[in-house]
Amino acid sequence: MDAVNPPSLTSSLAFRLGTLGTVATARFTAAVESRGLKPKHVALLATLDAGAAASQLELAQVMGVAPSLVVSLADQLQALGAVARERDPADRRRQTLTLTEDGRSLLHECTALAHAVDDELAAALSPAERESLRRALGVLAREAGLPVAE
Is the predicted pLDDT of residue 150 greater than 80, yes or no? Predict the structure, then answer.
């Protein structure tokens, strides 16, 4: 690395991933808005589907958001028929959420939308480059402690 002429900011992995993440988020947000959702709604559906948590408090912890946000998201998803909310018989203060069949269908639609956004973002890559990028991002996600599906 040349101390006089360091590499440009735009060549850094942090800058590129951050900027592309903003682009990807904007495109995914626009896609799921057609279903009346925001990305956090989809994240809640995916977390429930993965079985990572059931109570609203556990979901907030897993998702890294405030419990009040989970309550608001759950209210909206319940109104859509995507989740069911029940009191835990063992602890009446605890509410659990479950994904309904409508919720699974909605998550399936959002997954298809995410893959369509993937196709747009990676249109300039060859199939081999796409697979290499998918694997490399999987390694980085795993190292960051994020859930990674193969």
Answer: no
